[in-house]
Every structure is written in C-alpha cells, then in structure tokens.
Amino acid sequence: MAKSSRAALAGLLAGPAALAVAGMLVNGCNLLMNLVTARVLDSDSYGAVSVQVSIFLILSVAGNALLIAVVQHETSGSGDTRREQWSWIRRLRGVCGIGIGIATVAALALARPVATLMSYDHPVAIAEATIGAALWTLLCVERGLIQARGAYQRLAVNFVVEGFVRIGLVILFVLCGMGVNGAGLGIVIGVLVGAEHGRWAVARTPRLPRQAPAAPTMPVHVDNSLPPATGPIPIPIPAPRPSARQSVIADTTVALGALVPLALLQNMDVVIVGWLGKSGVGGYAAISTACKVPVFIGLAVANFLLPEAARRRKEGRPAGGTLAVALAFVVAPGLLLATIGLVGAKWLIGLVFGPHLTGASDALWVLALSMTLLAVTLMFTTYLLGAGVRRVVGVLAVATVATTGALVSAGGGAMPTAVAALAAELLTAMAVGLLVVQLHHADRQEAAQRPQAPQRPQAADGGYPAPV
C-alpha cells in the first residue's frame, strides 16, 4: 500500500514538475533574448520590439482561451469511434487555418493605418505580431489535445521546442541586422514550428481510456432506512453538449472572459506607472519582470492542472490534491523571490538589469508577494474552469476594476504601487478561493445525498458469511 501511494504521488508530481522546468527554461531564454536585444538595438528599436511583443501577447489571449475549450471538450470523451473522435479536431484545425488566412490578409492591409494611428514606425512588425498570434491559435489547439491526453512530458518538450526556436531566431535575426522586423519574423517562424511539432505529438498520443465515475461494486438493494453516504466524492462535470462547435465556442467565450482580466492584472501595473510616473518606469519595469517568475511557472503548471481537474471530476474522483500540488509549485518560488528581495534586491536587479535600473529595488519583495498571489489566483481560476464553474468570470471582472482604481490611486510611485497591488491581489485571491471552497462544499453535500451500498455483516472470524 505504501509503495502504491508513493507511486501515485510520484505520478502526480511528474507532470507539473516537467512543465515547471520547461517553463523556467523558456523564460530564462526569454530573459537572455531581452538582454541581447537591449544591447544590440538602440533604445528606440528596443522599445519598438517591446511594443511588438506586447501586441503579440495581447492578441494571443484568444488562442489561450481556445486551448481551455479544447481541453474541456477532449476530456469529456465525446465520440465512440476513432473517426468520430478525430472529426471535430480536423474541423477545428480547418477553421483555425481559415482564420489564419483571414488574419494574414487583414494584418497586411491594415498594418500601415494602425501603425500611423499608434505613431509606430514599424508597420511590418504589427503585421508580424498579428500573424504570429493567429498561428498561436493553431498551436493552442495541439497543446490542448496533448494536455487532455495526459502527455505532460511531450507538452514540456513542445514548450522547449517552440520557445527555443522562437527565441533563438529572434536573437539570430537581430544580430544579423534585421532589426524589429527580424524579431517579428522570428516570432512567426517559432510559433509555426511549435504548432507543427504539436501536431506531430498529438498524432502519436492516444486518447486516455475512459473511466466510469466511482460507483459501488457490490449489488445494492434499495433500503430507504440506510443512512446517506458521507464520502467526499465530487459530482461529475456536466456531459458535453451535442454540438462540438457550440461546445468549443461557449467554452472559449467563458475562458476568454477569465483570461483577459488575468492578463490585465499581470501587466497593467507597469502601464499605469509609466503613465503616472514616467521617470521611474524603467526601475519598476525591472522589478516587475523579475517578479513575474511565479506567474510564468503558474502558466506552465496550469497546463497540468486544467485537464487533471476536469478529468478527475468527470470520473467522480477528488481533485483537491491536484490543486494543492499545483499551488506548491507556484508559491515556493514566489516566497523564495520575496526572501531574496528582502536581503539582496539591489544586488539582484543590478546584476541582471544593470545598476541604472535599481531605483525601485526596495519594492521587489512586496511586488514578489503580489505576483505570487496572482499566480495563486491563476491556479484557482484554472481549477474552477476545469470544474465548469463560470462565476469566476464575474469575480475577476470586478477585481480587475478594483485593482485598476487602487493602482491609479498609488500615484505612480514604486513602493505605493507595489503595496496597492499586494492588497488588491490578496483580496482577489481570497474571493476566487472562496469559490473553490464553495465548490468543495457543494461536492460534499451532493455526496451526502447519494445512496451508499449496505455493508454485508461479517462473520465472527472477520470474514464474510457464505451465501445461503
């Protein structure tokens, strides 16, 4: 029994560990890319690359929402034959391909007017960011299928392949003198390579076998005098809707409503500081980048938590342990970073970003705690989406508005902004965490109302009497 428990724990840790390591590798290379481009390009060109990457990240939220919908539909186990199981995937890939074509034409046609409107000197870079985000939807379809099939090591490899190709090409093209447009071309090619690798991985990853929800194995005789069951068996998630298209569209819409506020909570503090206190935005941006480590790890681990939470609940198994493991992977590095910020923030920022960007280092530990709480909120939100709880969208919308007001009221100073962010993220994590508590309470109530198989009387020797 102890051996099987250790094996189960090892299996539970293997998935998030592989994804966390892959996330750290990719984000470490991403930091290297920022350091190289900052030193090769002049300040205006580096700023233009930052704007291009920001446009790509904002537009790619749609692909991330589609990924959640794909995971939810694939884990529902729809389709009895192999042909039925693959038909909706082929249709979705075809729709993504049409969308990529439309986005490419629109990006090439509208890039120059949009660049003029934004006073941005690189219209081709805007088109590249848009095309890259369109290709990202196809990559997210493949990653969603890999997640739902439990192939977390292959998913981690896909992270590394896409990230290394994209980052390596950006550095190569910039060093070759292609400038901002070269960086955008690297993004497009890297995402395309990642999507093709994901398709290859999906073709070699079978769907997990279906497991029926937990049920009594002994014959049950209906007896209204029996007490209700008290086991913590969660309710299964709702059955899939008849139409795959309607299911994916509905789930994508809900996921988009949750991911947009999370993206704003992650990035709007730098924008507000730049708006209200431009002289200190460089130093604040440096500590903000350093403090994103828990969030980056959380984004990687969420690829494990979402399908596992959905699958376990569908099978009638508790998913709280999966959530606890995911939380440990994001809280531990966040607390470590906050500790470093208390004793050596100026040294850390000076070493990584340069001594000219240490002006806001005193606020590093506060912002590290804030981003750790944001990573916790991300885990809670992913867990709730996997369980089909849609109220989280409204909670996050209200929290985003409240956080915006708190950050604006801080006036643009580094420490006041970090303190305001910490207070806002704490309240947000508590509000979303309350939904998780309510979900588990509803599970226990549902389990208590289920009939339980009667226990057969035991013989004196401890065994069961022979049937008559």
Quick overview of this protein structure:
With 468 residues, this protein is mainly alpha-helical. It is built from 14 helices and no strands.
Could you explain how this protein is built, in words?
The protein is mostly helical and 468 residues long. It has two domains: 14-207, no CATH class; 251-448, no CATH class. It has helices at residues 2-40, 43-59, 61-75, 82-118, 123-148, 152-175, 179-203, 244-276, 281-291, 293-314, 320-353, 364-386, 391-409, 414-448. Helix 2 (43-59) runs parallel beside helix 7 and helix 11 packs antiparallel against helix 12 (364-386). It starts with a helix and ends in a 20-residue tail after the last helix. Residues 212-242 and 458-468 have low confidence and may be disordered.
Observed structural traits:
468 residues; mainly alpha; 2 domains
Fold topology:
Layout: H1 2-40, H2 43-59, H3 61-75, H4 82-118, H5 123-148, H6 152-175, H7 179-203, H8 244-276, H9 281-291, H10 293-314, H11 320-353, H12 364-386, H13 391-409, H14 414-448
Helix pairs in contact: 1-6, 1-10, 1-11, 2-5, 2-7, 3-5, 3-8, 3-10, 4-5, 5-7, 6-7, 8-12, 8-13, 9-11, 9-12, 10-11, 10-12, 11-12, 12-14, 13-14
Backbone shape: globular
Question: What order do the SSEs take from the amino end to the carboxyl end, as H and E?
Answer: HHHHHHHHHHHHHH
Q: Write down the Rg.
A: 25 Å
What number is the mean pLDDT?
78
Distance between the termini: 33 Å
Helix percent band: over 70%
> In terms of per-residue confidence, which ranges show pLDDT below 50 for 5 or more consecutive residues?
212-242, 458-468
State the secondary-structure class: mainly alpha
Main beta sheet strand tally, sense and closure: none
Query: Total number of helical segments?
Result: 14
Total strand count, please?
0
Q: Quickly count the domains.
A: 2
- Kindly estimate the percentage of residues that lie in beta strands according to DSSP: under 5%
